Amino acid sequence: MAKPLVFPVLAQFVSATAGRNMTRTAYVAVTLGVAMMTVLTIGPAYDAVAHWVDAVLWLCLAYFVFEWLVRLRHMRQRGRFWFYQLSGAGLVDAAGALAVPLALLAGVQPKTAWLLAILWVLKVVPGIPGLRQLRRVLVQESGPLISVLVIFLMVVFLASVAEYFLEHDVQPQTFGSVPAALWWAVVTLTTTGYGDVVPITPLGRIVAAMVMISGLGVFGLWTGILATGFAAETRRDNFLKTWETVSNVPFFANLGPAAIADVTQMLRTVDLPPRTTIIRKGTSGDCMYFVAAGEVAVDLPGRKVLLGEGHFFGEMALLGNTMRGADVITTKVARLLVLDLVDFRLLMARHPELAETIDAEARRRQLENQ
Amino acid sequence: MAKPLVFPVLAQFVSATAGRNMTRTAYVAVTLGVAMMTVLTIGPAYDAVAHWVDAVLWLCLAYFVFEWLVRLRHMRQRGRFWFYQLSGAGLVDAAGALAVPLALLAGVQPKTAWLLAILWVLKVVPGIPGLRQLRRVLVQESGPLISVLVIFLMVVFLASVAEYFLEHDVQPQTFGSVPAALWWAVVTLTTTGYGDVVPITPLGRIVAAMVMISGLGVFGLWTGILATGFAAETRRDNFLKTWETVSNVPFFANLGPAAIADVTQMLRTVDLPPRTTIIRKGTSGDCMYFVAAGEVAVDLPGRKVLLGEGHFFGEMALLGNTMRGADVITTKVARLLVLDLVDFRLLMARHPELAETIDAEARRRQLENQ
Amino acid sequence: MAKPLVFPVLAQFVSATAGRNMTRTAYVAVTLGVAMMTVLTIGPAYDAVAHWVDAVLWLCLAYFVFEWLVRLRHMRQRGRFWFYQLSGAGLVDAAGALAVPLALLAGVQPKTAWLLAILWVLKVVPGIPGLRQLRRVLVQESGPLISVLVIFLMVVFLASVAEYFLEHDVQPQTFGSVPAALWWAVVTLTTTGYGDVVPITPLGRIVAAMVMISGLGVFGLWTGILATGFAAETRRDNFLKTWETVSNVPFFANLGPAAIADVTQMLRTVDLPPRTTIIRKGTSGDCMYFVAAGEVAVDLPGRKVLLGEGHFFGEMALLGNTMRGADVITTKVARLLVLDLVDFRLLMARHPELAETIDAEARRRQLENQ
Amino acid sequence: MAKPLVFPVLAQFVSATAGRNMTRTAYVAVTLGVAMMTVLTIGPAYDAVAHWVDAVLWLCLAYFVFEWLVRLRHMRQRGRFWFYQLSGAGLVDAAGALAVPLALLAGVQPKTAWLLAILWVLKVVPGIPGLRQLRRVLVQESGPLISVLVIFLMVVFLASVAEYFLEHDVQPQTFGSVPAALWWAVVTLTTTGYGDVVPITPLGRIVAAMVMISGLGVFGLWTGILATGFAAETRRDNFLKTWETVSNVPFFANLGPAAIADVTQMLRTVDLPPRTTIIRKGTSGDCMYFVAAGEVAVDLPGRKVLLGEGHFFGEMALLGNTMRGADVITTKVARLLVLDLVDFRLLMARHPELAETIDAEARRRQLENQ
């Protein structure tokens, strides 16, 4: 029997799926499941490979049910059962596990019931990298965004009634009621313009032209608001991420809070996987790096120098020699702070003591490497 | 008889509708009225429920007439009769009350006359949250926006004459006159592209391609202008709102104007209704709050601490402990000033005396709660 | 005979048209001319009023020829004949005056020749308010804008060849050659989407989907570049306009250049025609004004106070009393500097001596008005 | 025989093509090649001039093969053979040289094989001016951009399944499968709107309206992100370019690093070809220039003054006299630093010693020219 073998695999699954939001298996299952659901709707393609498609769909469903049960158990053990159940992730997990079976039980046609497999794509949401940032922008700017939406809807309503009045005698088929005219107004104001419903009277066309130009305006306002919000959010995010790291680098530790705030605004945080080449010998560069966490290896002729937390490299680029002299590769997962040439010079001007430290170290290394 | 009952209700209505821009009843009436007007235009749907639709429409109209009369009386009592009558709100109220009855009296078909009920949506305008802000942006940037509009119109005219010249022999039906070509040009330059009028000669298509690319340019300019104006307006608005509040918080009162200007640029104002959870125990946070007005309750184990005007909370998050230790809920309508972690650190650098006060209070509270 | 009457009118015209770019008459002539040219192309409408249309067109043409000759004479008198002739304005004037007559002389059909009247709209260009600003943005950002245009064209070419390859067997009518596919690509990449040429093979549709998404990207880049350029240009423009004015206001004259630069960044310049109400009694306000040029009248009870160059008003709004106490109206064309509440407070913090002057003057006025 | 003549020409070609990315010949070859490839696909046009088209295509191909071989030899000589081969430029060169011949050898129809000539346009990529800048923006903002793309794809999938469910019974032809609905969703969400597939059920249209409005949102987010990134990149780029130049101008050399950083943020670098008129006598100007490299000639009455590295001109415009007093023309390729009036005044305020130097020099020149 397979059970003795299946169990340890399951146990591993349990620990893997319980903690993290999305395992690699889950990504595969979502992709496969949605792909098969798509095939299901293509008549001839499905008929050719019906058994395989059904098998994959059931497998994916089984996986998601299993994942959901594991998470429920895990959360109950930590006393966060209801917290999880009512959270966004919990609801998505439940919907992914239950929607299709419930539809099938309710007697819905299988081909239709399996369409609910599309809910599985919602599981990807928490894994989207910049989502939190986007949501903050939308929340911060919700006031003006809603204003624009209300204006959008008002223009849609006013335009569609005007257009209905002007066109419904000439085109009773397409402008026969206000809802039909509303459809036209949304299609036009978003500048989609299908062309299935088009005004033909001169006055109707003048109203339509004004609606299209308003469409550009709505677009512009919308974008302007989001651009403003995004710029503010980006500044905030960078600062937060970098402050944490800077205060952990010994090099900056003896600076006062004013100077740290200054330095923080100049550095950018970068996280790199192991065995990533940061600097390639012979290329030109315009930034230096501080190791905030992890370790990097400098490939000097004949030997390898390991640099750990608090060390820096690439400073030659800022002191006149823009051609990189050696390969630098991460040996572990590393968090680096990047200082651009631009900011190095501003920093040099405001905190000469820092610049001297870098300068001295650079000269020491140059001597050593000769 | 119902009169004795109706009168106090009316009296309450009078006071409610006279002062504020939009009562909840008015929103309901607008929504219902526009919905019924829409139903009116759908032949079969209307025939099924004609009586109900008519009744609701007349009711809404009666409400708006009543509201208008109440406001007129209210304004006359305060000697602002003509000021109100000629203001935007007064004109909209008058139009909403009179347009449909006048059209019916003038002998317009009822189905057509009721279309004027769409004017009721204009009553929503003053209630749009960020409208004042949007209008300021449009006014401030009106110069460049009008320039772009003039350029837009010039491109439209030049393109349509060119296209008429190139296409009217081949497609006399669609490009038979310059106005027809103007329709094409607007549809194309706004990138709507219905497809009802499409150039088919090679030269005509080259002109059209240039018009489309210009369309992108017009779009970009428009958006760029609005984005710039919006960024400036947002900065201004935040500053104004916050300055008022900051100077009312005792905590900041003994700072000089330079420091207040500094602090003001870092704080954000938030208005919250009663019984809103500001901080949820166990979540992580990166900001602290000052109570500018109203009151909040901190849910400590065993007791509830009420914090009124001038107090602050959530400061632990800024001092290393990002996990929130207690629920905080508003007890009344409260205006809070939010200080982000980012700005707290900049503030700490520039005004160490403020940071020390926060630090001392935080330590006092920690001792107290042990 | 009419000559003795016509001559002084002409003489006045000469002086009016020679100096300025566009007289009011010229605007009327452009509008009428283009409108009549439009009517000319509408068969039935033209037939009904052919004589009138022709008369107006010839009149407009006569005006533009006359205007051109007057300007030529004017410029020759100042020795700038060739400078004018080869400038944009000179070329447009020449084209407006000569294009239609030359076409008629060359034997072109009158209906076609008069289409060249569209060139008259180009005369409007120098009168567009923010044009110089827009041109500066386009010049400053020309590098990245051209890059995006080149990328746009490359995507168009690559996509159209791919689409031609994939579709020309299935749709020989619409995708029969690369130029036909190019038409499709431009229509799609600008998201216009006429729908006259649509890929139908699965692979063709995938390529098309990628083109559409690239279209969004191109759009976004374009807008981002223009928004950035526009923000920089707006800052620069405001500064320049205000600096000139600030240094002419005695109130600021005794400040050092550092303080003037500071003040300049806070003020906004506004030019107003005579008899414009700047402040309306009883409204609320959040800014004060300096008179940089011209004069304003303050409508106090019983008397009118005139404020000339260097004076300020509306300062009560910044000192706690936001309700305006009197109407203020311009008596001549006036240039005002606007100081927002936001900036007044920052100014107060940085230059307390200025704030004191304003404060003292405000208190003096308050006493006077009691 | 032609060989003795051909060889020196080839030798010159070799040196020209090996070093630079794109010679003028290469641009001509790309343009001609792609144009001829386009003609090839137009049946009647090709038949008329088939021999010429073929000849040009083969010639272009020959040129690209030759260019590739020359570069390979050149790179092998410098030991960078594999570096080049695996770089983007190397791959593009190889594809341009080999794609068409290999396709022909593989027995593909000539008309189809020559379509691969479109790959030649990729050679233009490294020559695009602002490309490096655009790439940096895309890399820096890749996080949020990918988020928006993922959200875009999720909306596309959810909408297309919903639309398939709602429409496939009514319109089996166009909404017959999820892939068909996906096509509709992409066409709609990008606001392209061909109109070949349009929902007709009421619910389907409501879903479609929401998709269109989401399209505006996606657009806005995308643009907002790119605008933010672009603004940051522009600042950085200007600073870097200018710093290098400023430190080479003797005039600024004796400033400390803080002042240089200050000055750098105010100057703009401009590179000009020889014989370019920088200042035209009699026009008005609002900036002054420093010569960072090269030389310019000032056309004074009776004599020509040459100004080399480190000199400045146009300073009168900043000292009150905005009318330019003389033509200034570059004599060699020149790199100029432009100082706007705006920034000159800020600079004057912060570094009075610099302003005095400019002032003194200006007065000296004025005396000299009298």
Automatic annotation (TrEMBL), chains A, B, C, D:
This is Ion transporter. It comes from Bradyrhizobium jicamae. Residues 251-365 form the Cyclic nucleotide-binding domain. CDD domains: CAP_ED. It is found in: Membrane. Its main location: membrane. Signal peptide: none annotated. Keywords: Ion channel, Ion transport, Membrane, Potassium, Potassium channel, Potassium transport, Transmembrane, Transmembrane helix, Transport. The keyword Cell membrane does not apply. SUPFAM superfamilies: cAMP-binding domain-like, Voltage-gated potassium channels. It is a multi-pass membrane protein. Coiled coil: none annotated. The chain crosses the membrane at residues 26-46, 52-70, 82-106, 112-131, 143-166, 206-232.
